Amino acid sequence: MTNARFATRSELIGILVLAVFLVVILPLCLDVFRLNLVAKYLTYAFVALGLVICWGYGGILSLGQGVFFGLGGYCMAMFLKLEASSVENTKIQSTPGIPDFMDWNQITALPMFWKPFHSLTLTIIAVILVPGIFALIIGAAMFKRRVGGTYFAIITQAVAAILTILIVGQQGYTGGINGMTDLRTLKGWDIRPDHAKIVLYFFEVACLFGCIFIAQFIRHSKLGRILVAMRDKEDRVRFSGYSVANFKIFAFCVAAVFAAIGGAMFALNVGFMSPSFVGIVPSIEMVIYTAVGGRLSILGAVYGTLLVNFAKTSLSESFPELWLFGLGGLFIAVVLAFPNGLAGIWQDHVQPRIDRLLSSRKPKPAAGWTDNSVADGAPAE
Amino acid sequence: MFGDYSLGDLGSIFVMQGFAGLILFSVYVLMALGLAIIFGQMGVINMAHGEFMILGAYVTWMTSNLFQTYLPGLFAGYFFLAMILAFLASGALGMLVEWGLIRHLYKRPLDTLLATWGLSLILQQAYRSIFGAREVGVELPPWMLGSLKVTDSIEVPINGVFVMCLTVLITIVVAYVMYKSRWGRQVRAVVQNRIMAGAVGINTEKVDRYTFGLGCGIAGIAGSAFTMIGSTGPTSGQLYIVDTFLVVVFGGAASLLGTIASAFSISQTQSTLEFFMSGSMAKVLTLLAVVGILMLRPQGLFALKVRK
Amino acid sequence: MLVGHQPKEFLLAVEGLTVSFDGFKAVNDLSFYVEENEIRVIIGPNGAGKTTVLDLICGKTKATSGSIQFRGKELTKLKENQIVQAGVGRKFQTPSIYDDLTVFENLEISFPRGRTVFGSLTFTRDAVVRDRVHEVAEMIFLKDRLNMSAELLSHGQKQWLEIGMLLIQDPDLLMLDEPVAGMSVSERVKTAELLNRIIKDRSVLVIEHDMKFVEDIAHKVTVLHQGQILSEGTMEKVQNDPKVIEVYLGH
Questions:
Q1: Rounded to two decimals, what is the model's pTM?
Q2: Helix (H, G, I), strand (E, B) or coil at B163
Q3: How many CB pairs under 8 A join B and C?
Q4: How many other CB atoms are there within 10 angstroms of residue C30's CB atom?
Q5: Short-list A171, A164, A165, A168, CA closest to A102
Q6: What is the per-residue pLDDT across C39-63, written as a single tens digit (0 to 9) for each?
Q7: Which chain A residues are closer than 8 Å to B113 by Cβ?
Q8: DSSP alpha helices (H): ranges in chain B?
Q9: What is the ipTM of this complex?
Q10: What is the dihedral of CA C135, C141, C145, C150, to 10 degrees?
Q11: Which of B245, B118, C172, B221 shows the shortest CA–CA distance to A159?
């Protein structure tokens, strides 16, 4: 146990290794197409990161993170779509200046709730605030009434189902099942060519590290310890004078905002947004990224996301039938055999060997990593 | 908006719409019964419940094909055998899953949820590999086709009536098994105090296994009944799983009566709303109402105040 | 009842407290008063409603009717964490500590500062916190185990840790539910010594079955039976009450 405000020495090394991997190694080794694929995967890492805080530390399993990923993504996509639908670009429509799908659905004027998305500043605020406030409302309604655990999971799932049906059903306002496609420029800067993709990749990695730093700060603050305590003995925390509901709401909102940032990055890097990233299936898939990485490991969330998505892409390219068997098997294996995921395997099998190797050279044992006593403890439940 | 209809027409429309709601109600009750046993009694979240139902549907489909090919003379009665086979197949698979997966996770309900979700993906892909991705429909025996004319303007389909009768019958059997039989008492004893139940000589592992199997078996029957009114595809089960969970939670997880009441109110709300707006908006509004009420009353419609 | 009589300031005044679970009244029209610095022990047969009374005071269970006044504040209207902040601390029957945290972190979380979301984000482990944690750890015999994961402690040590967590909270009213249950004889002696030290300068409400222990510490004893008060007064008075002998001590 140390007094680390933000990260212990071994955690700092881990962050550095990840930074080198994402900033140097991957861009050097991959072509732009593959790098853009990594950029797409990393948008899910934001969600996985939020789930570490909310599920790993707080014990709150949300099966509706796709909702927040979608809200963030749609906010960003609406801005990009408006920019792509200038009067000039859309002069063949019966109503020029509105997105094409509105025109197809006989809508003749831009709906009120679209108007703020003419402004990039308001869009960025919306990317954070819309999902944040939505999470606040759901969280306050549920946690103040002591709804948690499995009930909460089912309700968040229902919310994901509702939002998907709504987006698909309201085609004229949302683009329906196809989503918002054909996004072109950001403030006049074309986001489609290769050099733009590279810039966007680095921008995304920078944002990801921003979120990792925030997550690290939360984990090492007293709030992080209270979350762990709450997961274990909710009543004891309550009778130590804390409002348990407020802490849960906070964790849930942080996870929602992280997911929303990921969604916005998705719209930018991939160039479209659709309801297929909002519903129940993608939401649960995002949980498995966290589980594979290790639900208690901030960096594990990033590796887990990358690994599962690489596996998915390569398997579904060559053996599409095998992929669902593989994914299903992964769910079961992680839960039954590796509840702490990759991070758990690392901590139990790899780290001790490295330490032994280091200490055989240097008689003094490496300090710092013992701080992970929280992380390598028993599984969450 | 009602100007075009006469008062009599309007009455008939409402009756038939209400009847459509009753069929939806039957499907919900059948699916929710199995879930109410597994989730309400055992506290296990089985995300693969829909896939157990679909297994029953595929078993029914195969039975109907077999009868058509080899026993065309007995085709009128195939459904009753199919239902029994569906129950046995889903129940057996359920017991296998309990043994291989669920029993390791009783203390980690959220992890059960993830593991059974994984199972549902595997089952979906298995169905797709075995039966193909296309939806299949069974051929109804002739006596189930057509409709009953109640009045001149009101007609109800016979297969719908049959599914409803089946629902009533199965509900009564389940209620009897859970609340009146010796075995039902054992299940409830294990649920309330596992250690004590073990101490008084109940084989808790066996009770768990059979309870889970029974819940899955009922899902199989639900799937069997489902083929009477709709077609079946590998992912059909997933479409209903959230609705079904909401039905059980909304009813108050441990209450059979609550499950039925909530299935009734949800299905009636949805089919009534469908008359006024598009199907998707009706669904959105219904789900929103359920989620809203659950936020105000998390314990569901029927719940006891207990001393903890 | 008390018309024309000016009652002196009680720390805790419970009046007409009733709670009913599906018609069963676990606590039935209960009234009692605890003074400043008083040590009150509640005894009674199993199912008498002892733990429920503590649950009601600390807000874990909501009362059906009646009032609980603490320093003039109506506790029945407050949430659990507000009741704690008003100065009521509660120890549970089975040790309730955080297994995944170290002893130090267990105590630190109970330190009464930074109890809001943002307060806990900006909380720093300064000298005041560290000194207080060390001081309490010494009192509860866990000074050399501060960096140990709490799940590795023995049952008795866990009980002490929870008492320590209450101590660091510095409540005006301390409620203990069977503090020596499940302890070895030597642990019991140490616990009695610990309790005697920490009950100074505060009021204490204890549930205990160990009559020797009760005799040692109680100023006043309340005997509960079927959710109602059977007898109240000094240990001596209660012990000689024929009603009490019949239902409880006579066993």
A1: 0.88
A2: helix
A3: 10
A4: 23
A5: A171
A6: 899 988 888 888 899 999 998 888 8
A7: 61, 63, 150, 153
A8: 7-35, 42, 49-70, 78-100, 109-131, 158-179, 182-192, 194-199, 204-226, 236-251, 256-276, 279-296
A9: 0.85
A10: -100
A11: B245
